[in-house]
Amino acid sequence: MACRSSDELKKLVEEARKETVHGRVADYIPALGKADPGDLSIAIQYPGGECVSAGDVEEKITLQSVSKVISLAYVLMERGPGYVFDRVGMEPTGDPFNSIAKLETMAPAKPLNPMINAGALVVTHMVEGSSPDERFEKLLGFVRRLADDETIGYCREVAESELRTADLNRALCYFLKQHDVIQEDVEDLLDLYTRQCAIEMNCLNLARIGLVFALDGKDPRTGGEIMPRDIARICKTFMVTCGMYNASGEFAIKIGIPAKSGVSGGIMGAVPGRFGIGIFGPALDERGNSIAGIRLLELLSKNYSLSMF
């Protein structure tokens, strides 16, 4: 994908980069702890094929929680909204993304939304297939379609590092299995989920996926349908209400676009009808969002009136 460097974006990146000193990388996952906290890059992909960027947009990053919105889109297409939302809710939460607290007070024990870890594990559990390998290949094929890049794979080192340190997610899975929300071997599900989170791409790919959502599920190159409009709408709504963990309300007020973050420092944004955004900035704030990435989006939203509200 050709992408031209933008001096204007470079200035905004350098301004936002000052925030990295206040963040820290996700070193609780050892493989992610190796990232340079000073990194910051952005790509913006437009419908006509134009792309502008600043920073090292070719650097590979793992999707982490950005994958949650992609797996949700896939499962909604495969299973239908009725099936999915019988098993996972639609409501935002003020709790951290990896909290178990709400599950203990819900009856039935249904995760509040697909963007928290409990909900994402239930969504990944719904991917059909006879083995974790087959199910992962189906998810990966969908990611490749969204990004228009058949070379996309996953980072084994990150997946294995996450699997070794996934005790909290194991606890969530066993709790959900106890209440019959999950009905498969927990280790099989975690194997699939950690590989899903370790799918690897660059900011250009991320921006292209954001553009597909911005265009209501249409392929920006061919005009064909990658996902139905209503499924893209559901996913963008979750991105607005739950996509930035328990900072989603503040993000909606200050920036006001559908976006999904991950603890690798990735952010995927979808400005409806206009363009897709891919950001990488591994220094995180206390809620798990890229601290410089958020600042960069604030500057962009203010300068170019991006808010949909």
TrEMBL record:
One GO term (biological process): glutamate biosynthetic process
Binding residues for substrate: 65, 117, 162, 169, 193, 245, 263
Record keywords: Acetylation, Hydrolase
Keyword tRNA processing assigned: no
Enzyme class: hydrolase
Coiled-coil region list: none
Catalytic activity: L-glutamine + H2O = L-glutamate + NH4(+)
GO molecular function annotations of the record: glutaminase activity
InterPro entries per the UniProt record, alphabetical: Beta-lactam/transpept-like, Glutaminase
Pfam families linked: Glutaminase (PF04960)
The keyword Hydrolase is annotated on this UniProt entry: yes
Highest taxon of the lineage: Bacteria
EC number(s) stated in the UniProt entry for this protein: 3.5.1.2
HAMAP family cross-referenced by the UniProt entry: Glutaminase (MF_00313)
Quaternary context: Homotetramer.
Family indicated by similarity: Belongs to the glutaminase family.
Protein name (Swiss-Prot/TrEMBL): Glutaminase
Source organism per UniProt: Bacillus infantis NRRL B-14911
